[in-house]
Design a protein that fits this description.
By secondary structure, this protein is α/β, with parallel strands linked by helices. The chain contains 9 helices and 6 strands, in the order ββαββββαααααααα. A 4-stranded mixed sheet has the order 1-2-3-6, with helices on one face. The chain has a two-stranded antiparallel ribbon with strand order 4-5. β1 (about 10-15) and β2 (about 25-30) form a beta hairpin.
Length: about 240
């Protein structure tokens, strides 16, 4: 608690350096929006963790927003005549990372962050395709797969035309069958299509009932929102 405000670090874990007995605490702070004096907040987290655990702390800030801003990675307390403190932390600016450098990785974090890395609008389908290939290589359990896919999908959702292109590209891959077995977007799209079809069927039933009552076609279209083509189908079924 600092100045009456409750503060909670996002990710804190205890580990050891490879080949050494030194125990350290890693603090990762994901930041999805710009915030004044973020560098000072990182220092507050660091001081709280150090006071509690009295172990080496490795602070890391992950910036995932789209603004092209050069974030500070240092916090200082100083006077004109004396520097009291200099605190540094590692920073990872996802938007400045080249996605091509990570598509061959088997790292789940890299897969999730792929949708926030640097790529052009023309590469959207290819990035989605490479993400799916990464997911098949890692062979994660369904829960982890949905978690990573949920993050990716939040920032890179394709339009219908792009989805069609993606499907054609997948069919040409050797691992196409494995990709289609992933418990991710295909099932969600199926649910959504089912919901839309259900809504359309309900509108058709209402239109059919109104037609049977002899109500004007223009009124029926206005009430139900059915298109001219759909109304023709309803009339043919009547």
């Amino acid at each position: 608690m600092i100045d009456g405000e409750s503060r909670r670090a996002d990710i804190v874990l205890e580990t050891k350096l490879k080949g050494e007995d030194t125990v350290l605490i890693i603090h990762v702070e994901p930041q999805s929006y710009t915030q004044p004096e973020f560098n000072e907040r990182m220092y507050h987290y660091f001081s709280l963790l150090y006071n509690r655990y009295r172990k080496p702390i490795l602070p890391i800030a992950v910036f995932s927003y789209d603004e092209n801003k050069n974030e500070q990675d240092e916090f200082t307390i100083k006077f004109p005549f004396f520097k009291v403190l200099t605190f540094n932390f590692l920073k990872l600016e996802v938007r400045k990372m080249n996605c091509r450098e990570y598509i061959d990785s088997n790292n789940p974090v890299a897969a999730a962050l792929l949708s926030k890395m640097n790529f052009s609008m023309k590469e959207r389908v290819q990035v989605r395709l490479e993400f799916l290939r990464m997911m098949t290589r890692m062979e994660l359990n369904p829960a982890k797969t949905r978690l990573i896919y949920g993050f990716f999908e939040q920032y890179l959702t394709l339009e219908k035309r792009e989805e069609e292109q993606l499907m054609e590209n997948i069919k040409q891959l050797d691992e196409a069958e494995k990709i289609f077995e992933l418990p991710i977007s295909w099932e969600e799209k199926g649910k959504e299509e089912g919901r839309e079809e259900g809504k359309l069927e309900e509108k058709r039933n209402i239109a059919h009932a109104m037609l049977s009552k002899g109500l004007p076609e223009e009124l029926i279209k206005e009430v139900t929102g059915l298109s001219k083509e759909e109304m023709e189908k309803v009339k043919q079924e009547a």
